């Protein structure tokens, strides 16, 4: 039996995660393109049909992402969600005519490299394969303490910090989304195991954990969407998505380490490689979002660098001192 055959579940999950990113990223661009055409031509019937088709595409992507957790570790599935951002950025440059600058292209390359490194070094073996094993993992003191800390932090953010600082600090709402994401991803992982057991003939519908996971998933996703929409309404999208990706993925990977112990069988080299791959993806996503409005290309790069050198010092302050008969304008550097 080859390694490919013995770890077929990992490769199925990997394929589903990439396919999910392709569908989700494409649906975003097709929706935007369809709305632009709808504005030009008008018509509600065509718009309704377009919305249904895009909804099916997005639903298929979410379903594929859901199924990916049933086969592959969360350590690899969650970070690969960044590929949807990459795919939408590339497609927007071709389908919508939006220009992808040099830093954006570099960010795409870094995201691909980071994803490849994570795939190479990520754990391939599943530590939990049945609902009974999942129940035992959930009852472990380490995870119970971790879950209690997450709930306490979440309640503190929702009850105290969000009403006072949510409108001013971008981290408040996004931290709530990310902390809740630990429970939603764990629920998706458990339900994926339940679905596999259902098709294997196991009485998963009679298992109480199945329904606990369903309730947890619905409650957590509803809360995530609520606070993510609040954040998008207030803050710049270029900041929201990179910060949310970093916080969400970090907390999910931490939860995966504590609950599923997916890293137990990994060597030190694989652990370092996985962390470096994740950091590379973060850098790529940051470059793709933070500098997307800059007019930087390989052709005008020398001019951009030259203009930066000739620009006035950013800390040059202008001040006015009023004297008896004349005004003096001075400039000093800090």
Automatic annotation (TrEMBL):
The chain crosses the membrane at residues 9-30, 66-90, 102-123, 143-163, 170-188, 208-227, 239-259, 271-291. SUPFAM superfamilies: Multidrug resistance efflux transporter EmrE (SSF103481). Keywords: Membrane, Transmembrane, Transmembrane helix. It is a multi-pass membrane protein. One of its GO terms (cellular component) is membrane. InterPro entries: EmrE-like, Mg_trans_NIPA. It comes from the Eukaryota. One of its GO terms (molecular function) is magnesium ion transmembrane transporter activity. It is found in: Membrane. Belongs to the NIPA family. This is NIPA like domain containing 4. It comes from Nothoprocta perdicaria.
């Amino acid at each position: 039996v080859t390694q490919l055959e013995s770890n077929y579940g990992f490769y199925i999950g990997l394929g589903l995660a990439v396919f999910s990113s392709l569908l989700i990223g494409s649906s975003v661009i097709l929706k935007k393109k369809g709305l632009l055409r709808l504005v030009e031509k008008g018509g509600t019937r065509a718009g309704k049909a377009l919305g249904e088709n895009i909804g099916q595409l997005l639903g298929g992507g979410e379903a594929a992402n859901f199924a990916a957790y049933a086969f592959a570790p969360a350590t690899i599935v969650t970070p690969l969600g960044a590929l949807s951002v990459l795919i939408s950025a590339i497609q927007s440059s071709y389908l919508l005519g939006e220009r992808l600058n040099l830093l954006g292209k570099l960010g795409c390359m870094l995201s691909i490299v980071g994803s490849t490194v994570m795939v190479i070094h990520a754990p391939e073996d599943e530590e939990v394969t049945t609902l009974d094993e999942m129940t035992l993992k959930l009852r472990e003191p380490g995870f119970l303490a971790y879950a209690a800390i997450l709930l306490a932090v979440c309640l503190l953010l929702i009850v105290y910090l969000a009403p006072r600082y949510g409108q001013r600090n971008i981290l408040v709402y996004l931290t709530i989304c990310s902390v809740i994401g630990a429970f939603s991803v764990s629920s998706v992982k458990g339900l994926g195991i339940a679905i596999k057991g259902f098709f294997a003939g196991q009485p998963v519908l009679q298992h109480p954990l199945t329904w606990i996971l369903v309730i947890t998933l619905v409650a957590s996703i509803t809360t995530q969407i609520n606070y993510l929409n609040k954040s998008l309404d207030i803050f710049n999208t270029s900041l929201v998505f990179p910060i949310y990706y970093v916080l969400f993925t970090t907390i999910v990977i931490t939860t995966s380490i504590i609950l599923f112990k997916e890293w137990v069988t990994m060597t030190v080299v694989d652990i370092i490689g996985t962390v470096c791959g994740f950091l590379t993806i973060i850098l790529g996503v940051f470059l793709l979002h933070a500098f997307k409005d800059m007019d930087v290309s390989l052709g005008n790069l020398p001019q951009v660098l030259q203009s930066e050198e000739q620009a006035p010092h950013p800390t040059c302050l202008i001040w006015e001192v009023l004297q008896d008969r004349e005004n003096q304008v001075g400039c000093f550097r800090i």
